[in-house]
Specification:
The complex is a heterodimer of chains A (255) and B (198). With 255 residues, chain A is mainly α. Helices cover 77% and strands 0% of the residues of chain A. Chain A has a domain of 174 residues.
Amino acid sequence: MALHRFANPARFMRLSAAILPWFAAAAAVLLALGVYLALFVAPPDYQQGDDVRIMFVHVPAAWLASFIYLLLALASAVAIIWRHPLADIAAQSAAPLGAAFTALCLVTGSLWGVKMWGTWWVWDARLTSVLVLFFLYLGYIALVNAFDEPTRGARAGAILALVGVVNLPIIKFSVDWWNTLHQKASVFRLGGPTIDPSMLWPLAVMAVGFTFFFATLLLLRMRTALIAAKIRALRLAEIERLRPARAAARQQVLT
Amino acid sequence: MVVGFFVLTVILFPFGVGPEPEILSRIAAGILWVTALLAALLSLERLFQADWEDGSLEALALMPLPLEAQVLAKCLAHWLVTGLPLALVAPLLGLLLQLDTAGYPVLVAGLLLGTPTLSLIGAVGASLSLGARRGGVLLSLLVLPLYIPVLIFGVAGIEAAIAGLAARPYLLLLGALLAAALPLAPVAAAAALRQALE
């Protein structure tokens, strides 16, 4: 496992500076293409008409919400097992993004539901488990920020992230294990996707665009976190450097 | 003390929603389970707090007995003073809330099976939030999403029994949650205690 090659923060800063513009460009192009395909090329649904187009935002957001939590859990596992220095930073940078995508999924789902089901919310297994995912994200963010010492918060958050990962299979299979109002899987299922290719391709483009968008934001947040840590270290070093001069000044005032 | 909170909170509901028997009996199962959850949550903050503050937690961590076993012992103690009394008092409160007679056995069985899981999951939350700012509120935020499955199956079992259907699947699911929590929760809580002591 050559992962330790990327453990050096300076090397990470160099690598991320190199790939960040490409990821950002890919995100912009794919999202623009995806929105065009979703709004103008994909056909209207035979039952829902043009209202189905909210799917092209709702479904990628939902996929990312779960995927980011999986990433959070993996980064937490790496942090606990191998004490990889960037793993904690990756996990803490990803959490607010995951919470945002989960919120987007819930809000777009409500908007779609009020049109299709006649209700803003229903307590079926899929919606309930995604709401629980949202609160797991919030709990993680709250726990990490609840301690004065940053490393304590990071370690506690890592354990919490691993405890909550049990929710992910529940989300995925909730529509199969319970009678839900939310529809069953049409893409990631045994036997292949049942969705028509004219809708599957715009969906895939939007999903990949969302993922590049998330990756761009994640790298930006990680770079910011590393720079903030460097500023903190520089500040502490400056205080240490000035300590003898300050002590001498204090002595002068007293005598 | 926790039983006192349980009884008082349950008594508040008829004042809040009105004393009509039909309404109360419709929501009785939910009220009893949610207040049992909150009552279990009350005493969780102090599970490790006192030991951590006076240094006995470090001594306990250095003992030959594994930290996981000690967490299990703490959970058992917590359950004996919160979960077990709640499960025994719940039928009396069911009378106050006009709970349908078919629901009583499943109420007690469900609480007996579910409250140990609440203590175990609560121990994970308590050990994670040890020494945190506003630890009590943080503990609730961490632990309540994880309590939801126990709540869902507990109430669904009672509703099934009242409707004349089999409650056994729900009791088995509660047992399954307990069987999963028994080995896993002490491991997570012990890991959290170790990193709190570092």
